[in-house]
Amino acid sequence: MKDLLRALPALAKTIGRLVLDPRLPRSAKLALLAAAVYLASPIDLIPDFIPFVGYLDDVLIAAVVVDGLLNYVDRGLVLKYWPGSPASLDKLARAARIVAAWVPRRLKRRVFRV
Q: Which pTM was predicted?
């Protein structure tokens, strides 16, 4: 989870650039937009004012989107916009996969149209 938090600035920049790329599937763009709206919204499944537990839903949503983006979208396209090394992207993908392990792969494939 620490790796995910450290990578947030680079990840935000990458996602912003990816959304503008016409090669990113529409379903992936919609998933990224829905996650951004949910994360920015003050209304959550678990209220954020509850210490530690309040942010779990936000972390899980973010991890699912990152996992889907890094594991189901064309790697070359993601690497085009990733400011770090391919090894750092692989490390981030592994961390997101561990956090998002509770979501069925079938669902992630469907969202990201693999």
A: 0.72
